[in-house]
Specification:
The chain is α/β, with parallel strands linked by helices and 293 residues long. Helices cover 28% and strands 18% of the residues.
Length: 293
């Protein structure tokens, strides 16, 4: 497979490390994402006939998911820093290079929303990572939101970069299959990240976000999208200003060279089980398409 994305996501971080992680690790530094001789796990094949899921409750973890699948900061064997949540599939295969979903929560959410999000997307196909918003929401003690000022976004970008690189020392993450997914203000964060670092990500899924006109938000139209795919998802009963932002985002993103697809859902300003399942279908469709082989 010919790489469409550069590997500079890791290069700056590696320069600051002592020694070379790739030595004796089973990875080839020039092609670290090539698959091993072992067969691809069956669970990586997309299944398009699935039963309906109930709409997720983001305030409470999914009680059917064993707690050991989630590694919390402070646990002895957990590599995640404070303010992060990490999801590990129960049948994790170290020799397989996994796609990584970076989940960015909306207003009044937090990093623990991942406990409800990942099982609804897929409990096998991906590694999952989430971050705590960089600003209190003011609506609840645990609720967070995002500061879109250039300084805060630059700092978060660096934090995300370092966290993924640290995780990559412990887990086999496919560097060309890192996908952003966000709801509400988290979708806006994902758009900022994608615009600034298109070559870091394999694509983004943006649901119900105010993609423009956020306080201090800076977006510049630069044609360096390299055909990176983006899905814009929107509830048919969402707020008019959110709908207007999504309409405006289509020509903006296409003008930067990004490949845009859209979908309207029977929903309001919310994340539904259907939206979360579509994250799995959309990503797997791109991974398994002939163009990706």
């Amino acid at each position: 497979m010919t790489s469409r994305f550069s590997h500079n996501f890791w290069s700056e971080w590696m320069q600051n490390q002592t020694g070379n992680f790739f030595e004796n690790s089973g990875f080839d530094l020039l092609g670290e994402d090539s698959q091993s001789e072992s067969p691809q796990p069956e669970f990586m094949q997309p299944e398009f006939a699935q039963p309906d899921f109930p709409q997720p409750n983001y305030s409470q973890p999914n009680s059917n998911v064993p707690a050991e699948r989630f590694l919390l900061q402070g646990e002895v064997e957990s590599p995640v820093p404070p303010g992060c949540q990490f999801y590990l599939p129960p049948k994790y295969e170290h020799n397989y290079a996994y796609p990584l979903i970076i989940w960015l929560h909306g207003d009044d959410g937090n990093e623990h929303n991942l406990l409800s999000v990942m099982p609804e997307i897929s409990d096998q196909n991906f590694l999952g990572l989430s971050f705590r918003g960089n600003k209190p929401s003011g609506k609840s003690n645990a609720g967070r939101t995002w500061d879109f000022s250039p300084w805060e976004m630059d700092r978060f970008e660096e934090h995300l970069h370092d966290t993924v690189c640290e995780l990559r020392q412990e887990y086999h993450i496919h560097s060309e299959r890192i996908f952003l997914a966000g709801f509400d203000s988290g979708a806006t964060v994902a758009l900022n990240l994608l615009q600034n670092r298109t070559d870091w990500f394999g694509g983004a899924l943006l649901f119900g976000g105010r993609l423009f006109n956020q306080p201090n938000q800076v977006l510049e139209s630069q044609r360096d999208g390299q055909g990176t795919p983006v899905l814009l998802g929107l509830g048919s009963h969402d707020h008019p200003e959110v709908m207007a932002d999504h309409v405006a985002a289509i020509p903006f993103l296409k003008g930067t060279g990004i490949e845009v697809s859209t979908r309207m859902y029977e929903a309001g300003h919310e994340m539904t089980g259907e939206m979360l399942r579509d994250i799995n279908y959309w990503i797997m469709d791109r991974i398994c398409s002939p163009a990706a082989i």
